[in-house]
Write a structure and sequence with these properties.
Radius of gyration: 16 Å
CATH architecture: 3-Layer(aba) Sandwich
Number of strands: 7
CATH class: Alpha Beta
Number of domains: 1
CATH superfamily: Vaccinia Virus protein VP39
Structural class: alpha/beta
CATH topology: Rossmann fold
Length: about 230
């Protein structure tokens, strides 16, 4: 991997340190950057997980826990993991009934076939090995369970592609400077650019053993929500 944030890739310890640094402003920045719409997208991702009351669900790379909380609101017993202790501290303060645990999404400490669903919201593009992370999520889901990936994607056609470029290449880094961490919010748009498009991500999911893969594009094509079912 290249070393600098402008390349859109960082070594795993650097990514962990970055999220520890921005944990205090993470929720505010999400709301500013998405005009508050990220909550709606997480609700749609939770809907696609299709958990029932009493099911056990896993949210990986949970950050400050908003997607895990959406799953819990549907009656699921939720385990939520992240490798940033600072993020987890803020998640625990939001909803103590969820089991918040330190874990690396690419080496999950859970047995195979345990969960009714596994989700990740805006975290998959930070996996240093995306196929491995998706395979781990698939491994811990029981047959017939769903894996859901909510992520930013790059629109291909103007005028939205032009707006996307201006917003992520110029506005988001400027907001990051105001928040006191320009490197982190320069890394963000570059991590989106290197992440596979909807068809590419569907291919990764299929290779991990998921079937019936489909995705929803929303926010004019900026947000993709994929779901696949474990065979």
């Amino acid at each position: 991997m290249t070393k600098g944030p402008n390349a859109g890739t960082l070594e795993e310890p650097q990514v962990r340190a970055m999220f520890d640094r921005i944990a205090a402003v993470y929720d505010v920045m999400n709301s500013v950057m998405t005009a508050g719409l990220h909550h709606r997208w997480r609700r749609r991702a939770a809907d696609l997980a299709a958990v029932q009351p009493g099911d056990e669900a896993l949210d990986v790379a949970t950050g400050t826990g908003d997607l895990a909380i959406e799953l819990a609101s549907r009656g699921a017993r939720v385990v939520a993991s992240d490798f940033s202790e600072e993020m987890l501290a803020r998640a625990r303060a939001k909803e103590p009934s969820i089991t918040w645990e330190w874990a690396n999404a690419q080496d999950l400490p859970y047995e195979a076939n345990r969960f009714a669903a596994a989700t990740v919201g805006f975290g998959a593009r930070n996996f240093s090995d995306l196929p491995l992370g998706v395979s781990e999520m698939t491994r811990v889901v029981r047959p017939g369970g769903n894996v859901v990936i909510l992520e930013i994607t790059t629109p291909q056609k103007p005028p939205l592609s032009t707006f996307f470029s201006v917003w992520f290449d110029h506005v988001v880094p400027a907001l990051g400077r105001l928040a006191g961490d320009s490197d982190a919010y320069t890394y963000l748009p570059n991590s989106v650019k290197r992440f596979p498009g909807p068809e590419g991500l569907a291919g990764v999911m299929a290779a991990a053993g998921l079937r019936d893969i489909r995705w929803i594009l929303t926010a004019g094509g900026i947000i993709a929500i994929h779901v696949g079912t474990k065979a």
